[in-house]
Write a structure and sequence with these properties.
mainly alpha, Serine Threonine Protein Phosphatase 5, Tetratricopeptide repeat, 3 domains, globular, disordered N terminus, disordered C terminus
């Protein structure tokens, strides 16, 4: 064997190996740089439209019973409002999501967290209204809270102020399901002197027209039929109860029991109050969208 040639061959192999290793290192570096760029892109701050779209997605999850989204939802909006403090829509959604946290806190018995959320939620809604006094959704949400809490807190001026805010919200956005739901579901729970049955009828009729058949729509029909009965419009009440009686939804048994009671002239007043209370305390705050 030619030792000189062998040495040259070994040098060439070593150089090629070194180049291959260098090339491999550069490939790893480029891949790492690409991964970092992709990670950075994925972690970029969300734009306001993206946050608002994600808020609606979180709302639907919450409405379906998934309370685990609430902390993520509020945290996202905390960041968004700090980055865009002049965006009334972001403040409105922060108020909405924070109030939804109240339900989670109360469910777990955490009254301290519920109390903190009850302070933060209305404050965010007021900030939305400071930025945009005609923000219909913020007016509606804040008005609904005040009408429900006024009697509980024994603050006589709170409920009338809330009613005025809900009325203004409907004036600003008469075709908004959100503001109609809020006023329709809180109105029947107001003290007699603050109730406006004409507004209740108008809102429920609007919601019936907009709703699809199903349990939610059927309960709206029952609420409207209950109001017909309360106003002495017995035949109209009977017709609406009958329209729900055989739909097979979760509301059908309630419609049947009311029809039977109507025939006995012994309407279940306590059940009617319970349905109205549930709609006011739960449905308006959750389903309004």
């Amino acid at each position: 064997m030619d030792c000189g040639n062998a040495g040259k061959t070994a040098d060439r192999v070593a150089k090629r190996t070194s180049l291959a290793l260098a090339l491999l290192v550069w490939i790893f570096i480029l891949v790492a740089m690409a991964d970092a760029a992709i990670a950075s892109e994925g972690a970029r701050p969300m734009t306001a439209p993206e946050v608002l779209a994600k808020s609606r997605s979180y709302q639907y999850q919450f409405r379906s019973g998934d309370l685990t989204v609430l902390d993520l939802w509020v945290a996202m909006l905390d960041v968004a409002t700090s980055e865009e403090p002049d965006n009334a829509d972001l403040w409105y959604w922060l108020g909405y999501a924070t109030l939804a946290q109240v339900a989670k806190a109360l469910q777990s018995g955490d009254t301290a967290a519920a109390s903190a959320a009850m302070q933060k939620g209305p404050a965010a809604l007021r900030q939305a209204l400071k930025l945009n006094p005609d923000h219909a959704e913020a007016l509606s949400q804040l008005g609904g809270i005040q009408t429900l809490l006024g009697p509980v807190l024994k603050l006589p001026a709170m409920a009338p102020r809330g009613v005025a805010q809900m009325n203004r919200a409907v004036e600003l956005a008469p075709d908004s399901l959100r503001v109609r739901l809020m006023r329709a579901f809180t109105g029947p729970n107001l003290p007699v002197e603050l109730r406006n049955t004409a507004h209740e009828a108008e809102d429920l009729d609007y919601l019936i027209e907009a709703s699809e058949w199903g349990t939610a729509g059927d309960y709206i029909r029952i609420l409207r039929a209950d109001l017909h009965w309360e106003l002495g419009e017995v035949e109209k009440a009977r017709a609406l109860y009958r329209s729900v009686e055989h739909t097979g939804s979760g509301a059908s048994p309630d419609a049947r029991s009311r029809l039977a009671a109507l025939e006995r002239d012994a309407m279940p007043v306590e059940q009617i109050k319970a349905l109205r209370a549930a709609a006011g305390a739960q449905c308006a705050m959750c389903h309004a969208r």
